[in-house]
Amino acid sequence: MTTTSTPHIDPQGVEIAETILLPGDPLRAKFIAETYLDDIRCFNEVRNMLGFTGTYQGRPVSVMGTGMGIPSISLYSYELIHHFGVKNLIRVGTCGAMQENMDLYDVVIAQGASTDSNYLDQFKLPGQWAPLSSYRLLEQAKRIADERGHRTHVGNVLSSDVFYSADPEALSRWMKMGILAVEMESAGLFANAAAAGVDALAIFTVSDQIVTNAKTTPAERQTAFTAMIEIALELA
Ligand code: HPA
């Protein structure tokens, strides 16, 4: 299965583990590798989309940036799955909370990812398909979050192509359908995983509260990430 290199990933002989954490920011991938993993080796520098393989409590795990948006995470996840044999893809990121009962730093686990993107059209399904995360990973992540005492919300997120929207009512319509939070990648990841028969999950830290307009600072985000990353690593 393993290809030597793809247009966007050139591991130069470094293995990529079957389980990978996928933050949007490549420097966050470096931070996760340096902070949590042992015996790390860099497996990608193409376009500075840094990827590392190491061990967590003795188990092999990789971590790699995805960039922002469905096109970016989709091409990296496609290559990881189809060319490097990755089986468990766990996005870790921030999200904007869209329900009133959610606070900054709460953990959100995506059960599904609705989207305003056209990415799913390529699968030519005779109807609307619901991109879901892996129940196996979801159930384990929720149990780990509960054991650790984190305030956790599980449900449907919105993977939006639009950060600065021309339609001021768009988000409130999604809110009325019970969407917990907005981010920009998970629907592409879940679709690629489902089409290939592998497992994917997305775990978030609330960085913005869209209903109350509360926001974290960039410095606060760094520390707030810890809970989410540790849950993801426990899945490896
Ligand atoms: N929109 C999209 N993605 C995000 C947001 C947001 O408000 N906050 C964190 N990721």
UniProtKB/TrEMBL annotation:
Gene Ontology MF annotations: purine-nucleoside phosphorylase activity
UniProt keyword list: Glycosyltransferase, Transferase
Alphabetical list of SUPFAM superfamilies matching this protein: Purine and uridine phosphorylases
Nucleoside phosphorylase domain sequence ranges: 20-223
Keyword Signal listed: no
UniProt-listed PROSITE patterns: PNP_UDP_1
Enzyme class: transferase
Gene3D superfamilies found in the cross-reference section: Nucleoside phosphorylase domain
NCBIfam families xref list: deoD, PRK05819.1, PRK13374.1
Similarity section: Belongs to the PNP/UDP phosphorylase family.
Protein name from the UniProt record: Uridine phosphorylase
Source organism phylogeny: Bacteria, Bacillati, Actinomycetota, Actinomycetes, Micrococcales
